Amino acid sequence: MNTEAIYAMLRQQPFAPFEVRLSNGDVHEVRHPENAVLLKSNLFIGFPERDSFVLCALSHVLSVQPLQRA
Known about the structure:
This protein is mostly beta strands. The chain has 1 helix and 6 strands; from the N terminus they run H-E-E-E-E-E-E. Strands 2-1-6 form a 3-stranded antiparallel beta sheet, with helices on one face. Strands 3-4-5 form a 3-stranded antiparallel beta sheet, covered by helices on one side.
């Protein structure tokens, strides 16, 4: 996955929530830019409402796309 694309989504103004799809089928939502940190080879996503986080290897990120609004 292109780190520049993830960086651009995190810096977009106004911020638009997005989802991260991984090669193992997991999907994680980033609902606020302060809940994600782009590292050199990983993406840290925090979930404050459930006091947890995931660390996603960028090599396993298949896609990053805006969340569909219901």
